[in-house]
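for the recovery benchmark. tokens below, seq after
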């Protein structure tokens, strides 16, 4: 099913090990994607718990997306060569394929927009809280004061 192949080699022609285990979310493997009970019906997909299949079936939120293919557990230094065997054509529907090497941490990937968005929203909330605090101290009202209710006017 997923028949594009990639081989990454170093300058000394040593093959870089690419780990497949751990590319899918644990909740997807544990809950969403389970193999059906055996039957005599024809199965197009041999293994619903295959991590490549699970990652590919996770719905993307936008029309352009990235899917995790493998994990490199070794530190890369120097120049490397990637040999790609492209077996799945995407020209018929105008698709494109890219190979992206990225590093992540426990905070996530290299997209800094989300971090700055959290900081901006946090600052905005802080400014609003400060404004409401000042308004409350300047022109506060007693708790349970009913003179501001519409039917008392």
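predicted aa per position
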């Amino acid at each position: 099913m997923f028949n594009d192949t990639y081989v990454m080699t170093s300058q000394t022609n040593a093959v870089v090990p690419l780990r497949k285990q751990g590319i899918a979310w644990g909740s997807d493997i544990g809950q969403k994607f389970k193999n059906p009970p055996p039957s005599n019906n024809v199965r197009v997909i041999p293994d619903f718990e295959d991590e490549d299949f699970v990652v590919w079936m996770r719905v993307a939120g936008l029309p352009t997306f990235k899917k995790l293919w493998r994990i490199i557990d070794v530190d890369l230094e120097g120049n490397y060569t990637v040999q790609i065997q492209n077996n799945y054509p995407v020209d018929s529907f105008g698709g494109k394929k890219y190979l992206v090497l990225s590093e992540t941490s426990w905070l996530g990937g290299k997209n800094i927009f989300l971090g700055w968005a959290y900081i901006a929203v946090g600052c905005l909330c802080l400014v609003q809280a400060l404004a409401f605090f000042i308004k409350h101290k300047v022109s506060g009202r007693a708790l349970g004061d009913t003179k501001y209710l519409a039917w008392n006017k």
